[in-house]
Write a structure and sequence with these properties.
By secondary structure, the protein is α+β, with helices and mostly antiparallel strands. It is 40% helix and 21% strand. The chain folds into 2 domains: 9-127, Jelly Rolls (Sandwich), CATH 2.60.120.10; 138-217, Arc Repressor Mutant, subunit A (Orthogonal Bundle). The strands form 3 sheets. Strands 1-8-3-6 form a 4-stranded antiparallel beta sheet. Strands 2-7-4-5 form a 4-stranded antiparallel beta sheet. A 3-stranded antiparallel beta sheet has the order 9-11-10. Helix 2 (99-108) packs across helix 3 (110-136) and helix 5 packs across helix 6 (182-194). The chain is globular and about 55 Å long. InterPro entries: cNMP-bd_dom, cNMP-bd_dom_sf, Env_Response_Regulators, HTH_CRP, RmlC-like_jellyroll, WH-like_DNA-bd_sf, WH_DNA-bd_sf.
């Protein structure tokens, strides 16, 4: 949140209180399972996670990739059962907290409540983009958009990342996020390489022509162009 606004000391203290407890989550472990009771929310402190749903035919649709600093399970706060599964794509550390702690944040720190709303809306619009892409863009555009999204999200927590980054995903996981088979994902990655847009080596991807890649993907970075002038002032 401090990337968007300068937080007051009271706001920082409130957020730090949410992160007092820490829980390790091993790669491949499920933190929250779809359709099971959910009583906790989480802040991801370290690692990479994903949220997904299982479809009637047993296939998996990945909804979001989650990065350090993300608040996990917010949608679960309004349901008795979790609407999505949260699983670790790497060894992770999360900070669990209950709904009462979220209610206290909203009561005592209205600007933090507004910022939670801001992030929920960013995610909603990004999911809308993904939905439009699944229905209306080519396989190459979907994969290109996902590469740009991953790089931009990684950059929010590591400013040293330029155009090269560790992908951290299997081709099956990319396929489950873009509605493609692993074989099709591999073909699209090769095509992006042949077009001179990316290179791949030892699990790392380098974006060679970011502008052309963005044009091919019809990609919009939803973390830019924000208008936060309406946010309420912080409480001391």
């Amino acid at each position: 949140m401090s990337e968007l606004v300068e937080l007051s000391q009271g706001e920082r203290d409130a957020l730090e209180k949410l992160e007092e407890r820490q829980r390790p989550v091993r790669r491949g472990a499920v933190l929250q399972r779809e359709n099971e009771p959910c009583n906790e929310l989480f802040i991801l402190r370290k690692g990479l996670m994903m949220s997904y749903v299982l479809l009637a035919d047993g296939s998996r649709q990945i909804l979001r990739f989650l990065f350090p600093g993300d608040m996990l399970g917010v949608s679960s706060a309004v349901y008795q059962e979790a609407p999505e599964t949260l699983a670790a794509l790497s060894d992770c550390v999360v900070s669990p907290f209950d709904r009462a702690a979220l209610a206290e944040i909203m009561r005592e720190h209205p600007r933090l409540s507004a910022l939670i709303l801001v992030y929920c809306q960013i995610e909603r619009v990004a999911l809308t983009d993904r939905l439009a892409a699944l229905g209306r863009t080519s396989a190459k555009a979907r994969v290109a958009a996902l590469l740009l999204e991953l790089r931009n999200r990684l950059r929010t927590t590591n400013k040293s990342i330029a155009n090269a980054f560790a992908l951290g995903l299997t081709q099956e996981e990319i396929g489950d996020a873009t509605g493609l088979t692993a074989v099709h994902v591999n073909r699209m990655l090769r095509q992006l390489e042949e077009d001179g847009l990316i290179t791949r080596e030892s699990g790392r991807v380098t974006l060679l022509d970011e502008r052309a890649l963005g044009h091919a993907a019809n990609y919009v970075n939803r973390y830019k162009g924000l208008d936060l002038s309406w946010l309420p002032p912080p409480r001391s």
